[in-house]
Structures are given as C-alpha cells and as structure tokens.
C-alpha cells in the first residue's frame, strides 16, 4: 500500500463538492434528486463574456501569459477596485489566479509558518480551515451562531488573538449564512485590530455583488482605510458573473505579499487560463446589467424559501443580506424526529427519503443547521420544499 503524506491526511475533500457529486451519481442511477447543494449560480455565463472568449481563441490568444495575469485583466481589476470599492492599487499589487480558491491557497502558502494561527469565524466557507492546514497553519475557529446573526463580536475577536495570530479571515456576505457585516460592525472589529498591528486581514469579497440588504457593499478597508498595508482583498468573477468553470479569482494587497503569492503560483499552476482571462476582463469592463437580472431572481427565491422554511415547525431561518444561500437552524426539528441525531444524519435522511440534496451545517463548522442553495429554479425550490415538508 502507498504511504501518503501527513499533510494530505490532515485535510478532507470539500464536502460541498462531495454532495454535488453524490447527487449527480444518484441521478445517473435513475433517482429523482433535487440538488440544493450547489455553490454556483444556475444562470449561463452572459453572452458578451462568452463572445470575448471565443474571439480570444480564434485570434490565437492561447499561450502562456504572465503568471500574475495579463496586463489587460489587471487593468480591469484595478479599475473595478477603484469604481466599486474606492481602493487604489498598482499592477504589482494584483495577482490573478485560477479561482478565488487558489487566491486563498496562495495566501496561506506565502504567509504561514508551522504553528501560525489564522482566525476563522464559523460558520465558514468549508475550504479555509483545510487550506490553512495544508500550509501547516492552525485554524482558530470563533463560533458566531444564529443568536448573534452569524457575526463575530469584537470581544470574541479580542479573546481569540494570541502572539501566534497571523491572519483574520472575514467573508461578507458569507457563504454559508448570507450575513453581511455593516460598516459599523467592521469598524468595531477593526478597532480591536488596532491593538494588534502584526495581524493581517483577508477580506473575501467573493459575494460582493450578490447583496440586497445594507445598501452599498463595504469591507474592512472602507471602515479602516489605515489597514491598507495589512489587508489582502480577495474577489473573483465566479459568482457574480456565473463563471465558476472559468476559474478566475484575484487578490489585491501589499506588493511584497502579492509577489510572494505569485512565486507560489509560478511553481504550481503558472498563469490562469489565457482565454478565461480575456473573458474575465470583459466581465469586469463590460455591461453590468447581467448581475441585476440574477439579483432580482435570487431575491425572489430567497423571500419564498425563507418564508416556507419558517412555516415548518422546528425550523428557524434568518433572512439573509445576500449570496445565494440560506442557513436555517433545524435543532428543534431534529429533537422531534426519531432516529435522527444531528444535521449530518438529517442531510442523509433528506437525500435518501426526500430526494433533496443539501449540505449539513457541520461542514461549515456549525452543527444543527443546513445550507440550502437557492441557485436553482423556482420550480425546483417549490418541489424541494414540498418534499422536505412531507418528509418531516
Ligand atoms: N470564497 C468563498 C466564500 C466561496 O464561497 C468560494 C466558492 O465557493 C470561493 C471563495 C472560491 O470561488 P472560486 O474558486 O470558484 O472562484
């Protein structure tokens, strides 16, 4: 038998990708499964973006590019930060990667030494803790449950910081909860960090454009412009432009850190796909009305699903600020269902008995919940809720 590295043994495969694969396999075997597990919009990539990529192929733009991204895409990223976030960056402060996932992976690899701590509020995007572990870092989880609207408090943050803390991760609006921090809340969290100048901040703004509450999007740099030299902004085109398969994410931050991340990338993937970069450039520079179309639909589904879930005895679902997820608490429901002890068993029960695939909250560090993706048609959502109601 083959002896594998301790590194790989310390992590688990992405549970969200696993549930999607399981649902696909059951469907292929003839089972009628409604998938509410997906972490991607159900819309097609807009036509003008596809057209830019087709043109790139036909004009022979099919070779290696600079590792950190083409000049054109980096310019579009810089313009986007200026336009949407009021942030100024130079080209040497931008790194384009193969998805937002690689951006964070590069960051962890470039920043962490063995034993370095990364503070991750739970519920968290499933991949943060594992990517920290892959970099020999230590994930330090702060629990921010439903009672506090899934947001960490300044006191919790202060209590979690140790001399080994290198990084705080903020993801707002959040996968899986859909909760977004307000400017005031970010100001208060940042005030704690004023006392710990050596702690860096990663703000994962992947869902920036899928936001309906709280008015304009804000991140920690809007609340604390003075953190410019210790903050890395992560974003990408996957969610906002329905481009998950194209694999383009980007990071902006202090030049020495971006340069280090670029070295990691140069020895792993090299540049992201040349064709996808042209498509991403068009996404950022082109007509933005495609986002509005998606938003209207997501909001409609959100309102429906939240109301329906709350009408089920034992389920409590907070309305979200954005994203295409809702994250209901099902603890009371579990306590009245015989033979189902936790959210993992509940998710198993739903896929087997109701034909509804979704991700248990434990995967996000928050047991007693389930994550429902609303990135599917209204008909699917209606049928899924009917099935869930009948099953419970
Ligand atoms: N950040 C968050 C919070 C996410 O939910 C995701 C995708 O699920 C990503 C980053 C990475 O996106 P991608 O690698 O597909 O660009």
From TrEMBL:
Family note: Belongs to the class-I pyridoxal-phosphate-dependent aminotransferase family.
Pfam families: Aminotran_1_2
Species whose genome carries this gene: Methylomonas rosea
UniProt domain Aminotransferase class I/classII large: residue ranges: 31-388
A molecular-function term among this protein's GO annotations: transaminase activity
EC number: 2.6.1.-
Listed cofactors: pyridoxal 5'-phosphate
Keyword Transferase annotated: yes
Protein name: Aminotransferase
Gene3D superfamilies assigned: Aspartate Aminotransferase, domain 1 (3.90.1150.10), Type I PLP-dependent aspartate aminotransferase-like (Major domain) (3.40.640.10)
Keywords, ordered alphabetically: Aminotransferase, Pyridoxal phosphate, Transferase
């Amino acid at each position: 038998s083959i002896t594998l590295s301790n590194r790989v043994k310390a992590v688990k495969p992405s549970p969200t990708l696993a549930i999607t694969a399981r649902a696909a396999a059951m469907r292929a075997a003839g089972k009628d499964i409604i998938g509410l597990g997906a972490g991607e919009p159900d819309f097609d990539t807009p036509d003008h973006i596809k057209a830019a990529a087709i043109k790139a192929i036909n004009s022979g733009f099919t070779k290696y590019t600079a590792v950190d991204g083409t000049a054109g895409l980096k310019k579009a990223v810089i313009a986007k930060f200026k336009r949407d976030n009021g942030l100024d960056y130079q080209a040497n402060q931008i790194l384009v990667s193969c998805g937002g996932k690689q951006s964070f992976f590069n960051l962890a690899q470039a920043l962490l030494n063995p034993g370095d701590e990364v503070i991750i509020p739970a519920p968290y995007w499933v991949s943060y803790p594992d990517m920290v572990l892959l970099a020999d870092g230590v994930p330090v989880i702060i629990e921010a449950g439903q009672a506090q609207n899934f947001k960490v408090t300044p006191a919790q943050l202060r209590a979690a910081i140790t001399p080994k803390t290198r990084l705080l991760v903020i993801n707002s609006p959040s996968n899986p909860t859909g909760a977004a921090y307000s400017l005031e809340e970010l100001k208060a969290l940042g005030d704690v960090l004023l006392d710990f100048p050596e702690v860096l901040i990663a703000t994962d703004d992947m869902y920036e454009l899928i936001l309906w509450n709280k008015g304009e999007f804000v991140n920690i740099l809007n609340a604390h412009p003075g953190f410019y030299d210790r903050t890395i902004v992560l974003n990408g085109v996957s969610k906002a432009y329905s481009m998950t398969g194209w694999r383009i994410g980007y990071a902006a931050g202090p030049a020495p850190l971006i340069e280090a991340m670029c070295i990691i990338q140069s020895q792993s993937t090299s540049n992201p796909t040349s064709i996808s970069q042209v498509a991403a450039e068009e996404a950022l520079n082109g007509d933005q009305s495609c986002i509005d179309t998606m938003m209207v639909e997501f909001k409609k589904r959100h309102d429906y699903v939240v109301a329906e879930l709350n009408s089920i005895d034992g389920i409590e679902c907070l309305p979200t600020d954005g994203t295409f997820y809702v994250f209901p608490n099902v603890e009371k429901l579990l306590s009245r269902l015989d033979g189902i002890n936790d959210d993992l068993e509940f998710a198993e029960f739903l896929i087997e008995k109701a034909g509804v695939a979704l991700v248990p909250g434990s995967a996000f560090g928050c047991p007693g919940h389930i994550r429902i993706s609303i990135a599917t048609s209204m008909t699917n959502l209606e049928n899924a809720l009917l099935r869930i109601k009948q099953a419970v």
